[in-house]
Design a protein that fits this description.
alpha/beta, eight-stranded parallel sheet, two-stranded antiparallel sheet
Length: about 325
């Protein structure tokens, strides 16, 4: 399936596994790449740049196909050594980096000088245009349906994807709300050149998370996500569970809440433990509205082959209406 994204990234199918904290590890990234897509390691899932170096090596042992590394860089009180993580990526000859956050663009010249293809994630077209001017190779545009941080403007993919496609010269990757070939066909029809999926890849055999979490994803409907941090202007979409319900309740109290009031609920270590030990109500579990479309746990290879077949069938069916 040839698109501008497959040509840019040297992959068979225009399907990218998004960077996911605690999930984007070598087991999953290599499986996606071996299946013909682009697997992505999550850089900051690794506790140190040295650990990222080792994880890149582990991924190389599992696949001889292209894979990337995600680097999400937001302002924080105690930032990790971002420059050293970037240096580890460059030193290991990684060919593709997915970036997110305005601060990540500060490292763009260094990445480009190393010959790395850069995909930048955006939730607004105006931000995408800025990233394009700075020299990124592709834009991943995140609709309001997506897991993680959808921004504060609540623009869904059905509007955001064609807006981005019509205004950008670099190829556009549709992200958020895509779990099957029908969604992929819709994204391509709207002008995208590929799709990015996170939640769907969590519900695969190779995803390095506990079976209990995968079963909770299977059982969820499209209504089973919560938007947290809305009152703090840092919205995140996560799976509806006891912890995220408690966060929402705290934010809705008269007078709201500060981050310190909910820090113990949303701590990253707590979410990591929940994913690893299998307590669906043990911490924050990131998930998009697309959980309502997920009904099985295929291997990554089975998922991609099925998606491509469904996509082709959907495009052919739709083309009949143009006769």
């Amino acid at each position: 399936m040839k698109t501008r994204i497959t040509e840019l990234l040297n992959i068979a199918y225009p399907i990218i596994q998004g960077g996911m904290q605690w999930v984007g590890r070598a087991e999953l990234a290599s499986a996606v790449s071996n299946a013909g897509g682009l697997g992505v390691l999550t850089g900051l899932t690794q506790p140190t740049p040295e650990a990222l170096h080792r994880e890149i090596g582990r991924c190389r042992e599992m696949t001889d196909r292209p894979f990337g590394v995600n680097m999400t860089i937001f302002p924080t009180i105690a930032p990790p050594p971002y420059e050293e993580y970037i240096d580890a990526i460059i030193a290991n000859g990684v060919g593709v980096v997915e970036t997110a956050g305005n601060k990540a663009l500060e490292y763009l010249p260094k990445l480009k000088d190393a010959g790395i293809k850069v995909i930048h994630k955006c939730v607004a077209v105006r931000h995408a245009l800025t990233a394009e001017r700075l020299g990124v190779d592709a834009i991943s545009i995140d609709g309001f349906e997506c897991a993680g941080h959808p921004g504060e403007e609540d623009i869904p993919g059905l509007v955001l994807i064609p807006l981005a496609a019509s205004q950008l010269s670099v190829p556009v990757i549709a992200s958020g709300g895509i779990a099957d070939g029908r969604g992929m066909a819709a994204a391509l029809a709207l002008g995208a050149h590929g799709v990015n999926m996170g939640t769907r890849f969590c519900a695969t055999q190779e995803a390095p998370i506990h079976e209990n979490i995968k079963q909770r994803l299977l059982a969820a409907s499209e209504r089973d996500t919560n938007l947290i941090f809305r009152s703090l202007k840092n919205t995140a979409r996560v799976l509806k569970n006891a912890v995220s319900d408690e966060v929402v309740a705290a934010e809705r109290r008269p007078g709201g809440c500060g981050f310190e009031d909910i820090r113990h609920l949303v701590a990253g270590a707590r979410g990591r433990t929940a994913l690893q030990e299998g307590d669906p109500d043990g911490g924050i579990v990131t998930a998009g509205m697309v959980v309502g479309l997920i009904r099985d746990l295929p291997s990554c290879a089975e998922l991609l082959e099925r998606m491509v077949a469904e996509c082709r069938e959907s495009l052919l069916t739709a083309s009949a209406f143009a006769r």
